[in-house]
Amino acid sequence: MEPRIQYAKTADGASIAYSTLGEGMPWLQTPVAPCGDLQVEWQVPEFRAWYERLARKRMLVQYDCRGTGLSERGVDDYSLDAMVRDLEAVADCLELPSFTLWGSVNFGPVAIAYAARHPERVSQLILWCTYARGSDFFTPQAETMIALVEKDWRLYTEALCHYFLGFSTGEMTGRLAALIRKSVTPEKWQTAYRSAAKFDVEALLPEVKAPTLVLHRRQLPWLSVDVATDLASRIPGAQLAVLEGASGGYALEDWQAVLAAIDEFLGEGEEAAAAAEAPAAGAFRTILFTDVEGSTALTEQLGDAKAREVLRAHERIVREALRAHGGSEIKAMGDGFMASFASATGALECAINMQRALADWNAGVGAGLVPPEDAASSAPTIRVRIGLNAGEPIAEEKDLFGTAVNMAARIAAKAEGGEIMASDVVRQLVAGKGFLFSDRGEVELKGFEEPVRLYEVRWRERA
Questions:
Q1: For domain 4-266, which architecture applies?
Q2: Residue 360: other Cβ atoms inside 10 A
């Protein structure tokens, strides 16, 4: 199995070499840095094993950025916009409607910018050992190393690869250093370096809509775990996975752990997407809504970064409960979720599981987010309203609509934080299943002419 190399033309006229390998859902992988050669990389055993493993399940797409490898060499624009144009050209040439986007190291900002500008194209975003601000990577130490380029290009590339890959990688270091020297000139490298040092996509992070996984190795000497943590905290709903190791090479050290983290992340996305397509038109479903109570006040109390950490805990707990109880995530809506279930029993068990997991989090992890000297009342808690209703919603474009859905949303709005409220329809569907209900009487719901009888689900009484 050999990759097929073709060319795409950018909006500013540069020819970009790209390759495809395998079949299935597209995975578009950016370069690591402004260097590389698609043909030469394929001959490096470590890279080849990585690429073949990725291509077993999907269509792997790679490219050489402008000025490097098999792409057009006679260009001088290495700005962020120019680098995004390279990525756009490849995705457009292949007519990819959506794809997983992998952005690593120096090209992480490029992937972030593309994902923010083209949310409809990026189904998942995976970031490897990267950053949002060039200043986090291009430190004074890196500036000292770049001075070697003009004095001894060979020595510079070998020192760089030792630093990037780790000092115990042996022959791999020499092979990668030779690849850099073959794929880019010292002059082009310096130009690209100076441009990349100015990259700053921090303002775009809140605009990333795709499910995002931030991967990092804990012992990296050139990029702190704090940078990865900050990056993940600023992307809505992002997951952070910190792996052991000191190498920036994803195909080195424990690369199987990297692939396992990727497979788990993509598996969640694929399962959620498949589940969201499941409801047929007119199918009877139980609809569940969640909503975090007081999310604005939480941000004022903790600040943006720590509040985001709390909300990510809520997202993780909800999604884990949905997977465990057969729920389909229909959509995330700010500080809440809409989900559907084929089984009313499964929906109620899921809601109870959520509230108990949130209560455990509040009693443990949440208390550690503020300094001990602060008053106990300052400890953050996640208080979530949950509402359920059942009926025959209208299924359209992976979403659900109609009276059953609207009522479920209104019921959730009537709950207090930490409560589960259900309609009488749901209560009757699970009669005899051991659930405890408390009659809350008839309640007027906005948009409904007749009052609706609601029941609180008693979840604190453990069976």
A1: 3-Layer(aba) Sandwich (3.40)
A2: 12
CATH code of domain 278-457: 3.30.70.1230
Sequence-ordered list of residues with C-beta below 8 angstroms from that of 320, at least 6 positions apart, any chain: 357
Alpha-carbon distance 39 to 384, whole Å?
53
CA 222 – CA 142 distance, rounded (Å): 9
Joined together, the tokens standing for residue 403 give 């009276």
Helix (H) or strand (E) holding 231: helix 225-234
Rounded Cα gap, residues 267 and 261, in angstroms: 10
Cβ–Cβ < 8 Å for 128, 103: yes
What is the distance in angstroms between the CA of the first residue and the CA of the last residue of the chain? 56
CB 55 within 8 A of CB 21: yes
**Which DSSP letter does residue 133 get?**
B
In degrees and rounded to multiples of 5, residue 337 shows phi and psi of -135, 155
- CATH 3.40.50.1820 residue ranges of the chain are 4-266
At residue 252, the pLDDT reads: 81
State the span(s) of the chain assigned CATH 3.30.70.1230: 278-457
Q: Which residues pair with 422 in a beta bridge?
A: 388, 455
- Segment 278-300 shows an average pLDDT of 76
DSSP count for the chain of H helices, then E strands: 16, 17
Q: Which two tokens stand for residue 244?
A: 């052991």
Cα gap 7→17, rounded to integer Å: 5
pLDDT at 274: 42
| Distance, CA of 250 to CA of 428 (rounded, Å) | 53
CB 70 within 8 A of CB 64: yes
Most confident region among 238-242, 269-273, 394-398 by mean pLDDT: 238-242
Model's pTM, two decimal places? 0.60
202-208 mean pLDDT: 96
pLDDT of the residue at 169: 56
Element (H, E) at 443: strand 437-443
